Amino acid sequence: MIRALYTAATGMEAQQLNIDVIANNLANVSTVGFKRSRADFQDLLYNTLREPGSAATGTTQVSTGIQVGLGSKPAAIQRVQLQGDFSQTSNPLDVAVRGDGLFQVTLPDGSLAYTRAGAFKLDSTGSFVTSDGDSLTPQITIPQGAEAISIGNDGTVTVALPGQTTPTQVGQIQTVRFANPAGLRGEGRNLLSETETSGTPQLGTPGQDGFGELTQGFLEGSNVSVVEELVAMISGQRAYEINSKAVSAADEMLRAAAQIVR
Prior knowledge:
The protein is 24% helix and 31% strand. The chain is an alpha+beta fold. The strands form eight sheets. Strands 7, 8, 11, 15 and 18 form a five-stranded antiparallel β-sheet that branches. A three-stranded antiparallel β-sheet has the order 12-13-14, with no helix packed on it. The mean pLDDT is 93.
């Protein structure tokens, strides 16, 4: 009886974490470049009351044995790397990656971080920065007086300057990719950081060697599907309720056993 109480409790804790992950996905349904997460679970250890394959008689063996599971536990929370939908903004500083690749930015402490959110702005010096002021790396600076900014599919940034008939190239946006992007650590503010399991960043040119192309005037939205998350939330809620009923059933059985003793 006691085993059932603790086993059902692990199921309730697992579904609580599942709902937490779903709630975060739904909260970021409008976050640019956000990648939904998925909670993975695994079963716990088993109490083996009879070993499978043990001898039943001198000539026969137990075919299945008797094992009682002790519940479930979280195994991982994985970031799903599916492409989000594109939305047209017509803002020349908005850039989306079509395919594999992350933008590289430099934080105030000098460390590097990575993001899929291409909603860039210009700072007081004309350099590309994120909404929090983190500088795009390699740094690109737009000269004062530039009349138009053009970003090619390969990341080439050109501007039209007064008195010049041909565009002037001022830099090239490069992207990075990782052997295991799911292993990146989420830092908040649309930023990811490198870990030992993500592998080292590979810098490359958009549209070449498997790197995704850039699209100016578009932003990549979240890849969260509200319908799928709502279905998962209902399923998780029902699983939580079922586990709570298992706790209640075990409690009723313990109560009945206690009354027998009386």
